[in-house]
Design brief:
By secondary structure, the chain is mainly beta. About 5% of the residues lie in helices and about 40% in strands.
Length: about 170
Amino acid sequence: MRGRGVKAIAALGGCLVGAVLLLDCTPEPICPAIGCYSGATIDASFPLPPSTFDGATFTLCLNGVCSSGVLAPVDGGIQMNNPQTVVLSGALGDQSVGLSVDGGGTDVGFEFGSFNSTKPYSVHDGDIYEVKIEGADASTILDVTRTATYTTPDEKCSPACHSATIRVTP
């Protein structure tokens, strides 16, 4: 019986000292070495050819504060091996939109991140994101509003990172 008790103490990795003193053996959180950022990604897949987005205006708003940018026509167009980025500028600070092509159409990903903003922002559950894409002909390609709920990998990391992924169906 005594051998089992010693094995149990050894299995606890030294957390139990003697039979009286119990130490906190909560493992340290695994935090990113480089740091992290808080923000959101808003993804949409369109069954549309990439040329639909030539000259389009992309707008990303967080709680009514917005930044916009225009996709200049690309020589050769957007292709599978030639993804494009649109830089958004404005009151929300510098943000980005990535466009890529898959076999079924065009994928668009709006990125809001506190790391790439020229203005400091903090994020909170309930933030309202608006994403808009207006074609060069002023047609509405996408106009959606979504409320974010953020996840936090580990509250013990400093700074804590809060991220949300929002998928929209056009």
